[in-house]
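Consider a protein example.
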Amino acid sequence: MDHRVAIVGAGYAGIAAAVSLAERGVPVTVFESGPVPGGRARRVVSSGHELDNGQHIFVGAYTVLFDLMRAVGVPADALLRVPLLIRYADGFSFRAGLAGLLLARGVPVAEKIHALKFMAALRSAQFRVEPDITVKELLDRHGQHGTMRHHLWAPLCVSALNTPLDQASARVFLTALRDTIGVGGAASDLVLPRLDLSRLFPEPAAEFIRARGGEVRCSTTVRDLNDLKNEYRKVIVAVGPHQLKTLLPEIAADFTYQPIYTCYLQYPQGTRLEFPMLGLSEGLVQWVFDRGTLLGEKGRLACVISAQGDHQQMTQDELAERCHRELAEAKLVAEKPLWTRVIGEKRATITCAPGLKRPEVQGNGVFLAGDYTEAEYPPTLEAAVRSGVRAANLIRKET
C-alpha cells in the first residue's frame, strides 16, 4: 500500500488539507476532475475570456485561509485589504464598530440607537441564540427594520450564508457577526482578491505540494473510492455535497442548495467605480465590483446576485440586460457594455438553515472535508479551508 494520502477534490478544502499534510512531510496525491484547481472558486474560460466562476468577498477573520496563503508563498499584494466599509450607490455607508453604527450615513437616528441596542444584546448573549431560529425572526425580535435591515443586516446575512433571511440560520449568522463586526479591528477588514481565484491560492498551493513530493492530478475523475482505499494509506473526500451520493452514499445528506450568479459586463476602459465594491439596494444586483481596480481588467464590472429568487427564471441575456439597466439607473455606467457573460453556480452552497444536519466527518476509513461540514461557520472559503485542515489533523492523530 502506498504511504501517501489520497485527496479527492482540489477545491479550497482539498487543497488546504493537502498543504497541511505536505508541510508536515506527509506525501499526498490530489485528484481533481476539472482542468484547474479551485473547485467552486476557480478560473474559467468563457468565449475566450478568463473569468472567475464567482466573485468572492473575504474578511479579515479568514485567518486560516490567509495563514495557508502565506505558507505557500502568495504575495501580500494579492489581496486588497481595507477597513470594512460598506458603501451603496444611493449614499448609505457603514464602517465597522460601534462608531460605525453611530456614523452610518443615510440612517435615521432612532434606527442607529436600535442597532446599538441590538449589538449590545448580542454581546450580552455571547452571540448565541437557543434554540436556533431564522435571521428574519432574530431581526424581528430585536426590532431591526428599515434602513439598517435593508442595507446592513440583510446583505451581511445573504453575503455570508448565501441564504435568504426567512431561511437562514441565526446561529450561524451570529457566528459570522461575532468573528467580524463583534471583534472589530483587523478581523472586520474587507479583503478583496487581486488575482483570479485559482491563482490566488490553489495553483500556488499545488506547486507547494509538488515541491514536497506530492502530486496534483487535474482532469482526473475518481468514481470509486474502493480502489483508492486499497492503494493509499488514508483518503480525504473534499468534493461538493451533491457528489457524495456517488462516492459516499452511506453518509450523503439531503441538502437543498442556493445559487450565486455573477454577471460580467465589459465597458469601455475608462469605466470605473468610485470604490472597488459598491452595494445596490433596490433591484436584483446586490454588489458590483470594479475588476479594473482589483485585477487590472479595465472597464470590467462584476455584478453578484446571491441566493434564490425570480432571477433564476431569466435567460442569461435577460439577466445581463437587467444588470446593465440597474447599473445605469444608479448612474454607475454611461454606455452600453461591449460584451457580457453570466456564470450561474446553481449549487454554490447548501441552504444554511436552522437545524441543518451535517454529515459525519470521519468513518469507514475516509475523512470528509468541505464548507458544508462546518456546523458553526457559514459555507465560505474560510469554512472550506478550516475543514481541510481539520481532516489533515485527524489523519495526523492516527499516524
The longest strand covers residues 339-350. DSSP finds 14 helices and 18 strands in the chain.
